[in-house]
Amino acid sequence: MASPVSTSAAPSSSREVTRYVAIAGNPNCGKSTIFNALTGLRQKVGNYPGVTVEKKTGRFFGSHGEAMELLDLPGSYSLQVRSPDEAVARDVLLGRQADTPRPDAIICVVDASNLERNLYLVAQMLELNIPIVVALNMVDVAEKNGVVIDIMALREKLGVPVIAMVATKGVGLIELRQAVSRSPLPPPTIWTQMPIVLEREVMGLARQLPVAPDIARAEALLLLTLHEAALDEVTHHDRAIIEATKAAQQRLGTAGIDPISAPVDARYDWIGQVCAAAHHTGDSHFAASVSDKVDGWLTHRVWGWVAFLGMMALMFFCIFTVAQVPMDWIKDGSDWLGKWVTDHLPESDLRGLLTDGVIAGVGGVVVFLPQILILYFFLGILEDTGYMARAAFIMDRLMSKAGLHGKSFIPMLSSFACAIPGIMATRTIENRKDRLVTILVAPLMSCSARLPVYSLMIAVLIPGHSAMQKAGIMLCMYLLGIFVAFGMAWVFKRKLLKGETPMLLLEMPPYRMPSWKGVALRMWERSGLFMRRAGTVILALSVLLWALATYPKPSDPKATPSEALAQSFAGRMGHAIEPAIKPLGYDWKIGIGLIGSFAAREVFVGTMSIVYSVESKDKEDIAPLRDTMTNEKRNDGSPMFTPLVCIGLMVFYVLAMQCISTVAVVRRETNSWRWPLFQIFYMTGLAWAGAFIVYQGGKLLGFH
Amino acid sequence: MNPLIDQLSVAALVGGALAFFIVRFLRKRAAGKNCGSDCGCGTSKASKAGR
């Protein structure tokens, strides 16, 4: 649905920013949707709590054309933080974040269907001394659930502007923009009545704090509500302040007041009064029963798994059937282009570079674009409908057995698309050891870059078989990644990163119709990124790999293509690692593919295209890679790509790290080289062992 | 094709590909970022700006 506001966004405008506005709220209340609608920028909007873990800013314009900077804060339930992403939100609001100014105003997004819980954060926001506009989102869902909210009463009770919204449909966006544009915005009022003794201690501590007077009370209150162990970990205050806090806590304890629970109780007392005045519940029996019935099936001990596996199987089936037609178009286009260049350029190195390097290398990867689009189409729908949270619930049973935290599910699920957002999503995991275990095993999930490798090897393994059989093998590879990830997590949790795993507390979002525009935008964005990567990194790598596979040229001009390749730099590298990969059934040409794809897995396909095109350069046409690989022979005349070699190669790619960007992100997220290096080492070892077991074990059992 | 033009064209393309990776590495280092700008992870400046 088009937003009436988004058309006015002009991020490149040089107009001076008049106001710095932060969007805050509970996870999954629609912050990112409002952010997108106001700024016109695009980002991922999902149903699962905790998707927003990055700092996202954008510019939007007030009702009088004044430029304002908008900051999308990570979702949090309160300012008493439990995870790194919640800490970011708190630090920005308290002006502690070095690279971010303290906001001039806050748009506090409140889920109307969960008013009472969402108001807790509002109560804390009101204590921050920053003007607030409350965006009461999802009023349509609340109404459907039989909840009626008296906006006027709510406005009166909170003392700040309250805008009723349905952000996904653009309802209330103009009013929100007008409210934020008001100058000056009304200052917030602290409504929560703390016990007098507590208030006295808060003010006493606030006077000692070396912070701006307008946030001193909020800072003092946050300090007083910390447990002793958490207080000892505070680094942004002097030791004297920590000791003063502990002394104040002791005095409060003597007075019979628990400094941790008393502010919570006081806030909920006030929330109770607000809800009594503004929140009325009607008949929600029908909606709840339908949702419960669906959940009864989708989260069932047995049927839940059937539904989960069925959906996965359907996804892979579509990847193989629906994608085939556009894949053929791309392949035909690539072949036509290669032939055109061959026809119009005389025999030369340049022609070889363009046909065997650029067209074969880039075309070999781009051909998988339709499959990647279908993967994102399904992931988008599952996320938008709210099914992901149910899948997390089902998987938690399995994950808890492996010692993984339930919150690890989203990072691991995101890793099916790409391990990098998956690893970044681990910021929602509070416990450091649980987070590290998840980071270590997340790249074992089969990312979209593995898809081209699997597709190619499956096509070589079972040419002409049905899409169902191909989808079955693909599903097995995905399941292998999942089970090995759980197995390794079990090992890490028991040997390397011992510790208890806290139980999962999960919010189930209501089932919703997917936003088709959102799904389409995500597919567009992902295809753009994939094509950009194909046009930059993969193009440059293809050119370099072609050069490595072509030079130095053999001194004997009558040398066969195979002899020429063997004498090239790539051939020498392949030969150098051949002793290590021979037990896996691979030859030096596959070795070239393994080396070439160390930086990025999907380059394996392009490398194989280059290796086999270079080798068969006498041919007028660029032979389809699958057929060339199927006909490839060993020195003794036996086929090279036997079923065991194909399966072994797929297993190798399921388990190997082979992604330099992931290594870099693990380095950044763990702040050390120790963990990424360990990860490369263990995953490469695991991949080698897996491929060895498949090949040698298969041979022992009489397969070939 | 003139062999000199042929070799020069190939050298320019291979040199360009090498220069691409060198410039990419230097830019990332200068920006203090570890993640590639085109991996799709959303951490690049372009992704953050929503472009």
UniProtKB/TrEMBL annotation, chain A:
GO terms for cellular component: plasma membrane
CDD domains xref list: FeoB
Binding site for GTP: 25-32, 50-54, 72-75, 137-140, 166-168
Alphabetical keyword list: Cell inner membrane, Cell membrane, GTP-binding, Ion transport, Iron, Iron transport, Magnesium, Membrane, Metal-binding, Nucleotide-binding, Transmembrane, Transmembrane helix, Transport
Record membrane topology: Multi-pass membrane protein
UniProt binding sites for Mg(2+): 36-37, 39-40
GO molecular function: ferrous iron transmembrane transporter activity; GTP binding; metal ion binding
TM region(s), chain numbering: 302-323, 358-382, 436-459, 471-492, 530-549, 640-665, 677-695
Annotated localization: Cell inner membrane
Pfam families: FeoB_C, FeoB_N, Gate
Residues covered by the FeoB-type G domain: 18-186
Keyword Disulfide bond: no
Family per similarity comment: Belongs to the TRAFAC class TrmE-Era-EngA-EngB-Septin-like GTPase superfamily. FeoB GTPase (TC 9.A.8) family.
Biological role: Probable transporter of a GTP-driven Fe(2+) uptake system.
Database matches in PANTHER family: FE(2+) TRANSPORTER FEOB, FERROUS IRON TRANSPORT PROTEIN B
Protein name as it appears in the record: Ferrous iron transport protein B
Lineage summary: Bacteria, Pseudomonadati, Verrucomicrobiota, Spartobacteria, Chthoniobacterales
Automatic annotation (TrEMBL), chain B:
Keywords on record: Membrane, Transmembrane, Transmembrane helix
Pfam family name, one: FeoB_associated
Transmembrane segments: 6-26
Domain of life: Bacteria
Protein's name according to its UniProt entry: FeoB-associated Cys-rich membrane protein
Origin species: Chthoniobacter flavus Ellin428
